[in-house]
Design a protein that fits this description.
It contains 4 helices and 10 strands; from the N terminus they run H-E-E-E-E-E-E-E-E-E-E-H-H-H. The protein is α+β, with helices and mostly antiparallel strands.
Length: 170
Amino acid sequence: MSALANRYEEETSSSATDVIANQESTNVATLTVEVITGERSLFSESGVEMVSAPGADGTLGILPNHAALISLLDAGELIIKKSGREDRMVVFGGFIEVLNNKVIVLADSAERLDEIDVERAERARERAADTLKNRSAITNVAAEEAALKRAAVRVRVGKRRSSHRATPAG
């Protein structure tokens, strides 16, 4: 092989390797996320960088390439980070499934932050707390405790609404 042919071979093979390396470094994995209740779809987008969900045993942080997972959800705040913004909502029970960079949240019920009426939630929390003070008169204590928990989550998350709605992630 001539010196010119050898030089061409070296340049083209290293260039191809550099192109492949550059493509791999720009193909950053992201998540596709869906948040669904029995009544509606609240969120469905690709390109998500992180999901934080209220798992039954604590907060779940889901990043791209996460191991396969199915977990129960507790009542709490669901945070979805994408392109420097955070979409926040509250979920009340359900399941989360993570498989092949797809996250599916099947919530018993869920609300976007802008749907939460904090004053109404505070009144509901007070009513539930008052009702629970007289447990002997309650026919379904578990339902009242669940109502108190839902109202408390709405109040806690709703009060942070103005400072976190679609804000830059940080």
